[in-house]
Amino acid sequence: MSSLSIKKPGMINTSKLTAAPSEPHAATMDAPAEQSENPAAKYTGFVFETLFPPLLGLGLFILAWSILAQNSDGRLPGPVSTWLSAQELFSDPFYDNGPNDKGIGWNILSSLQRVGIGFGLAALTGIPLGFLIGRFRFLARMSAPIIGLMRPISPLVWLPIGLLVFNAAHPAAIWVIFISSIWPMIINTAMGVRSIPADYLNVARVLNLSEWKVFTKILFPAVLPYMMTGVRLSIGVAWLVIVAAEMLTGGVGIGFWVWDEWNNLNVEHILIAIFIVGIIGLILEQTLIWLAGYMTHGA
């Protein structure tokens, strides 16, 4: 207090404030920052907190698989023989020896094509329907019993209807994907529209905004997180359904390939197909999570 000089009543000259008392405080604040920026500590934390847990989980999974295979009297292939079979399988993934003997690459692409078409049609139909149902109460009440009745139905129940209507296996499989993946997009989009505060729509009504302005300036930015959640759930459902649908419809696809390998008693190829389905499903989901985060950033 002795270093302050008061020239006028109510005015304090801060130029004579000494910086000495603040230096120890600054030194104590800088110490943890320097410690956290230590490259060795950051590398160790990354290894033990990020890499080690999943690697440990995978190692335990392979160990359990090996023990189970050794005690199955040769009925279940082990990790080593499955890996060697996968190397041979993927050495020529796009060979073509006729309609019933194609490489694993062609089967994967055929399944992805069916999922893309069915999921795309479901998105083009389900998202606008979700906006309308969420926007207009009359439509919501009208569609509620239909959605409540259709949504719990098992996807494969729709396959005979698809075969009857389209009279072909390929469009019937696409139909099953469409009808199975449309509900999460409708429900989540409608829920997002209903969650918008009424004040926003009241302001739009006072400003006499058109429905297009209300959609582009209020509804779409607010509903985008809900809509992307529905899209992510739908792609998971679509990829799960395609394998079962292709087992029943035949043709070229990962589902039919699994069934064909089962008839050939090639269990190693079935295990490889399980990993392929899981890896592709994981890639699709992570891609949509990244896309949802990118689109909703700042929304």
From TrEMBL:
Keywords: Cell inner membrane, Cell membrane, Ion transport, Membrane, Transmembrane, Transmembrane helix, Transport. It holds the Pfam family BPD_transp_1. Its main location: membrane. One of its GO terms (molecular function) is nitrate transmembrane transporter activity. This is Nitrate ABC transporter permease. InterPro entries: MetI-like, MetI-like_sf, NtrB. Belongs to the binding-protein-dependent transport system permease family. The lineage of its organism: Bacteria, Pseudomonadati, Pseudomonadota, Gammaproteobacteria, Methylococcales.
